[in-house]
Amino acid sequence: MINVRDQITPGQLAFLVVQTQIGVGLLMLPSQVHTAAQGDAWISVLIAGLLVQFFIVVLWCLGRRFPSLTLYDYLPALLGRYIGKLVHLVYAAYFILVSSYIIINFAKTIRDWVLIETPQWIVIGMMTSVCIYLVRESLRTIARFFVLVFFCNIALIIIVSCAYLHVNFLYILPVGQAGIWKITKGVHETMAALAGYEILLICYPFVKGGSVAKIKAVVFANIFSTLLYAFAVFTSLIVFSPQELKLLPQPLLYMVKALGFKLFERLDLYFLSLWMVVATTSAIGYFFMASKGVANLFRQQSNHRKAVPYTAALVFIIALIIQDPLLIDTIGKILSITGYVFIIGIPFVLLMISVLFNIHEARGRPR
Amino acid sequence: MGFFKEMLNNNRRKSRPMPGKSTLTPRPVFPTVQENIQYLKEALFHTDDLVRQKVSIPGYTSEFLFMYTMCDQSKIREEIFKPILENKDGDLEGILISMRANKHDDLEKVIDLVVKGNAVLFIEGMEDCFVIEVGSSHVRNVTEPNNEKVVEGSHEGFVESVSINLQLVRKHIENRNLVVKRYKLGNETKIEAVIVYLQNLANPELIEEVDRRIQNIDADNISSSEFIEEYIEDKTFSPFPQLLHTERPDRVIGNLLEGRVALLAEGSPTALIMPVTFFAFYQSPDDYSFRSLQGSFIRFIRVCSFVFAIALPAYYIAVVSFHYEVIPEDLLLPIKSSIENIPFQPILEALFMELTIELLREAGIRLPGPVGQTIGIVGGLVIGDAVVKAGLVSNTMIIVVALTAIASFVVPSHEMSASVRMLRFPIMVAASLFGFIGIVYSLMIILIHLCSLESFGTPYLAPIAPFRWKDLKDTIIRMPQWALRQRSQDPAPQKLNQQSQPVEEERSDD
Amino acid sequence: MRTGLILFATCFLAATLLSGCWDQQLLKDIRIVDASGLDLDPEGKLQATSSVLEVSGSQSGNKSLDEIQTGKGNTTRQLRDILDRKISGIYSASKLRVTLMGEALARQGIYPYLDVYYRDPSSALNARIAVVEGTAHDILTFKKPGTKLVGEYFNKLISSAERRTIIPAVNLQLICPPMLDPGDAFALPYISKDTTSPSIYGIALFSGDKMTGTLKSEDSMLYLLMADKLAKTASVTLKINEEGSQNPEKYIAIDIQKLKRKLKVNVQNNRNIKVTLDLKLKIAVVEYAKDHLNDKRNLTQLDKKLSEELTRRAQVITQKMLQAKHDGFGIGRRVMAYYPNTWKKLHWLEDYPKVEFVPKVTVKIVKHGIMN
Q1: d(CA A236, nearest CA chain B) in Å
Q2: pTM of the entire predicted model
């Protein structure tokens, strides 16, 4: 039922999740969380990571009941034909919107930092074309590419570590200054950046091996992403004074901009280049989920490849239309709230239905 | 638009029934010599190099026929006349045995054999004819291939004859598992091609796939192994070569022992090795004849040279036309002063210089040795210097282009070197349009392509993607021979272990 | 579908290639500004002075010159436009090495004038920054010795002083966090005009973004030691003896080898802030005409004398800091971190001068060269 060429190993699943999680959020997150949680932003990130682990367990429990089916395949079985189709459609739309949102934010950052005059549609088009080019391939190829570009994350960490030459740890003291409510708000901000583990809903059946190996992979992936985010936030907190941090939308870039060594100056340009790869993989992850959804909308268990051009066209057009910065912010807010519904709300309901009515996959077919 | 589809799907075509290869109905031998000879002459359209000659075997009227262009006169004397003279009174049976003649009863087959350089003997009243091998063979000596020289190690190279090449291979693998499979390729040329593999190592699925693809070739003109490549590779329109060309027996043997398949064909000293990975093109037999530290160092530099060759000019273009901020303070003035009066944009400068180097290279190949060197000097030194003095190209650009050229010639494989040299042009263009963003974009496209590429079912970028930690030991670096305990997984060999665990020996120095 | 994709890709490529390169900025077209000065003239207008590199296009041997351009306007960005009109080529401040601020401007507050440096994505955030006595224009146009470029000259002038722990190693980015932080402050190099050449006078103390005082070079070194910012070397000559047949015998020159600082902030009764600064120095004697440093008694005595002298000086420095409302040791930050409740009640600008500093310097001679 699952094409052999689409099968991936649990290790590859881990990278798939990491690369989908880490994306544009990496640059924006520190200032966003700082606005909400101030000096305790790093605590927020860690708590959010912990919370995500619970969400992952829920998604995994759901996936385990349908070991050879994707979310789209068992939606009708759990919700009935019409509601199932509707939810399916909404999911596909959500993923398309998220990919567009990632691409918009990417293009915006590129415009702010390097290609100031270049028209937006070019950058958006470049990003979309990379997505098309990779998502057209099998899931296995996507996973291979994600594993390959993982080194970009490491390189980013190394560049950011250079900022530790001038830090002031006093900025994060006293711990807990913001209070629980603000930390909670920070957690909310982080949840949106950590999103991406929902790829488990779609990829679960494609992963070889037992269910324990799968959850292990995703948990490790999430630990890595959380730590990377926490590291980014923590570094921003101790490099910039709280007052300055409020003024900077992309503190990480700003931080490396001032760094320079004998041979390399203006590290932000290198940083941005590496980050571009990381952001693209994140968009590709959502793009894959979206095209899988679109493909399955018309025919059960069809290959995602066929839907790629249509998905791409949609993503491209949405990204072109949404240009107003305030609108982008609004969409970001909407996405971060609806994210809860799609990532944990609906899957939880599905799990409840599945448990209560004892619906699970039997001999490769949903009852 | 089916054309594009056809083009891009070239080799993914499904196995279809064997194309109707011209199978002629057998033609039995005529009873009289005259009739037979007449038939053969007709069949070969009275070609003038067909010669008939009478021989006197006591008691029989007999005549034989051969193509003098394909035959060796001394062999004819040795194989045909000598046995007859020596067996003046002997019977026919004895003569034929000492002639080492093969009996044939189908004239159509005999025609093919005559074309290949055999003599055919017709005897009046017999229902069979006799084919005697008298073909002349002009084979070059086994010398070191000019395009794959090594410092240390074997200096043997393949020649244009399959049988000698196979002998070179067999000589080093004295193993009953070495299997040779023969094909006749080319509907008109009918050359002999063989695939060689080790039965106990090579993956049966791989053999089947190779076999299927070769069987599927339906073309009139196949005259050497390079012709076969494009018929059997996975993606013809990929810039990267998917079969390794080599003229070195030791390289073939090394690959056979890893469970790969080699294809040899009459008419070319080049063996094609499949499946290969990207890193196979960066390995040279030299790495193994040096000790592991030195070998690793050289190989590491070689792999780095790929990055250099592909991205250095693009990086320079991006820096001087977009991101001059990244130039360190102390370098800024020298670079700026060197490009201050150049009338062209950096991309044009670079294209001009890169193309000049390509031209020089191409010109150098065609010309005979000493002249080629002169061209190199004239081109490299004179043009380089004059172009800078004339203010057309900046000094720094010359340095960049020269470094790039050197880096691209480091690759031990010519096809890969050509791919690299070709690939840097799109990257340069992208860099001139979008700076670093353009470079990263094009590199991403190339990486994605590499990730999706497969050579006979083996991921091209193995063992980096998919990541196989154990296989890295012989990829970017070369671990010592005793540490290469397992074969690399990419050709999916049947047996992974290639040595037992090294025994920890108690070493005493006294 | 594949055809569609190919068509799309072709169109996209064609459109991209044909429409050209929007952000291209050729290195050969730009004019690099390597040093710039900002002044406030008496009428309150901003005056900018830039040294623009004049790169000769010859391929061999680059003899580069620079020209000084001046303009008057309201904001830094506006002045860039004004100067751009005066020079051939595109004005580019992204390889700026040094920014000099006139004292008048520094006393008014520097942040509004630096905003464009912080906002522009291509600006050089690692440019050094310094305050000059008088106007930056005078110093930049000062006939400099030799043929060094202005930017390079000031860059080297400042960096050598940084090495010797006379001035703090700062750049545009490094001063930004303390400038915006109410509980922290920064100091900038202070360059004065000698009769023959510009020289490093010491440091300018800032409170917020306004300059409020200066420290001479001997004091600035001790200030940096107290701030735990020992660079490569730090040496100072101190007068320790009143008697002595010759003048040099009254002095000792020392080199600071190792530094240990303990800074403790104590809040008593929720209001009174007491700062104890314990500085332990390990030094090498590099010049001492009276010799006999192998004698233990002599050494202890010297240690004691030096400690007393340095402690006295440290007290003077802290007094000056309090007067200038310059919170260079980040006392406010510490109060914020360890006594958040107290901090909320404080109005730091007014409460800072009330802080009680108790500096204590302990010196130990560990080396005395190759002679006793």
Answers
A1: 23
A2: 0.89
